[in-house]
Amino acid sequence: MRSVLVTHPGLQHSHQLALALHERSLLQSFWSGVPVTAQGEPPPWWLPGSFRQKLRHVDIPRGLRRHPARFQVALRVARSMSHNRSSSDTTHRIFHWFDAWAARQILQFRPKVVVAYENAAYHTFKAAKAIGARCVLDAAAFHHQAAAELIGAHATPYTPEINRRKDEEVQMADLILTCSPLAAESYVSNGVSRDKLRPLLLGAEPPPQIPVWQPPQGSPRFVFAGTLCHRKSVDLIVDAFQRLHADGLSYDLEFMGGIGDPSLLSAVQATPNARHTANAPQKELYAVLAQADCLLLPSRSDSFGMVVAEAMACGTPAIVSTQTGAKAMVEAYPGSGWIVEPDAEALYATVRHLIQNPQLLQAARPVAMQSGQAFSWTDYRARAGQLLEEFVQ
What we know:
Elements: E1 4-8, H1 14-23, E2 27-32, E3 36-37, H2 49-52, E4 56-57, E5 65-66, H3 70-81, H4 85-109, E6 113-117, H5 122-130, E7 134-139, H6 144-151, H7 159-172, E8 175-178, H8 181-188, E9 197-199, E10 221-225, H9 234-246, E11 252-256, H10 262-269, E12 274-277, H11 282-291, E13 294-297, H12 306-313, E14 318-321, H13 327-332, E15 337-340, H14 344-356, H15 359-374, H16 377-392
Parallel strand pairs: 1-2, 1-6, 2-5, 3-4, 6-7, 7-8, 8-9, 10-11, 10-13, 11-12, 13-14, 14-15
Helix pairs in contact: 1-16, 3-4, 4-5, 5-7, 9-14, 12-15
């Protein structure tokens, strides 16, 4: 019975959850601000050419999807006109606009279950409750209070309203999905009942024909993929590798991704044997990950860390922090990576040991591949589909 509605103002992993429901004939409709296409379907006419190569292909029929363009257009216009702190507030306001739009459609569709995503579920859940539907909150981040304690995020005038809505979403939810056990614990520690929390580790599946890993001819190759920002501990990475260079140790270090803090880009550029490249299509990212000897993601706060699953799907081990949700992949497959505290000394000591003992990096590859295979998108959909099928009944 197709009775579950999935809504998301962007995309994140919502298309994988929607596909999991479609595979079990449970998906009534999937609404996302970022479009996806089924196999053989042309991209939307309004999508800029630079984004067409990043388009995700998901085998959900067009009749079960809606992709309103207005929200992404508004986001891109707003971001081009906003600066620094105001940009985040603008994004949240547009997500709240999407939430209000989705809520107005609920009466027409009358789903049995609504899955909505953190910070875009407040009005949607209210409308769902009014027709007797049950509500599933897919929370992609830590509880906002825990996140603030971990990284000391700067509050803006709109922050109280953002957090008020998040708290109301949690209160209205009948079931809360988190990206990791670590993220689930952040909700428990802030008073949310463990009974309605279900951690679902995410996954990854590399594209076909990515380059096969080749043993390095020179220095070990380390890569960081993500936004250059304090939350992902880019400052700790830079500090550790500058110390390693001063020790006379050799390495190759690549940073891939956007620039959240320009001062960190300057620090990266000042680090010997390090380079930075901008965001790349997913296929190119996988190619870099596949050729690296180790991924670095010692985040101060990361509810999962998708790039860890992507790296391990290529057989590349990872250094993650105790505050990175994807550490669960290392815990499930000991030897697939290394878990460190998110501080400069711990990261420095671990990387130094690996550079001096490169055979450890090679020995970790087959175990990392096992972890990547166990946490694929296919596996995620099986777990998510079973959970929601039982919830719907």
